[in-house]
Write a structure and sequence with these properties.
By secondary structure, this protein is mainly α. The protein has 4 helices and no strands. The longest helix is centred in the N-terminal third of the chain and has 20 residues. The chain is extended.
Length: 77
């Protein structure tokens, strides 16, 4: 199966199957990072911009539970 076929098939999968694929992809990414694989130039540029933004204003962010609650559309506990 090529990439185009995979992308075409993804919307047809159920939520649990998509979640399983997402977790597998995430584990592959983590493994590559732990093995010292460098990020792509676009990823590095994004990380550099985000790091510079954080250094310029470290108080601008929110704690992870607050971010999760916002993403889920509910208030944090």
């Amino acid at each position: 199966m090529n990439k185009a076929q995979i992308l075409e098939e993804l919307p047809r999968l159920g939520r649990a199957d998509r979640q399983e694929i997402w977790e597998c992809l995430w584990e592959l990414e983590e493994r590559e990072l732990l093995q010292g694989v460098e990020p792509a130039p676009e990823e590095k540029a994004l990380l550099d911009r985000e790091w510079a933004d954080f250094q310029a204003n470290p108080e601008a962010g929110a704690p992870w539970p607050v971010v999760q609650a916002r993403l889920r559309g509910c208030q944090p506990k």
